[in-house]
Automatic annotation (TrEMBL):
Protein name: HIT domain-containing protein
InterPro entries with a match to the protein in the record: HIT-like, HIT-like_sf, HIT_Hint
SUPFAM superfamilies named among the record's database cross-references: HIT-like
Residue stretches making up the HIT domain: 36-105
Gene3D superfamilies for this protein: HIT-like
Coiled coil regions in record: none
GO molecular function: catalytic activity
Entry-linked PROSITE patterns: HIT_2
Pfam families per UniProt: HIT
Length: 145
């Protein structure tokens, strides 16, 4: 039986936040936008409808948790949630916090500005903050090792 592996492009473009019961939670390495990615830890999936009914409910709970955290912790004015997969075929769902002051507002973020990697200190602070908020949200992280 094949084991879950993160697509190489997602691995290259993100920082690991943690593993929820279903999804790996990642932070895109683009400081222009607070941008999380949920990747269901299931092998061979490309579309949301391919998740089992139980996994769809779990994904929804985890997406709602991520959404609440982005609004509460970062004061997001709007959330953009999308499963595109045009460049990376592995099922993954983008969860972006949007602000009227962001570089792309009100347009989609893709292709609007070159990605700016997080500086080490800012990255550590944001990862710590997001992990704490997700933990407070009631879902327990699973050890990824």
């Amino acid at each position: 039986m094949a084991e879950f592996e993160l697509h190489p492009q997602l691995l290259a473009d993100t920082h690991w936040i943690g593993d929820l019961p279903l999804c790996r939670v990642l932070l895109m390495n683009n400081s222009n936008f607070p941008w999380l990615v949920l990747v269901p830890r299931r092998v061979g999936l490309r579309e949301l409808f391919e998740l089992s009914d139980d996994d769809q409910l779990q994904w929804l709970a985890e997406c709602n948790l991520i959404s609440r955290v982005l609004v509460a912790e970062l004061a997001a004015e709007k959330l953009n949630i999308a499963a595109l997969g045009n460049m990376v075929p592995q099922l993954h769902i983008h969860c972006l916090a949007r602000f009227q002051s962001d570089l792309a507002w009100p347009a989609p973020v893709w292709g609007k500005a070159p990605a700016v990697a997080y500086l080490d200190e800012a990255l550590i602070e944001l990862l710590t903050r997001l992990r704490a908020a997700l933990h407070r949200g009631g879902l327990v992280f699973v050890d990824a090792s």
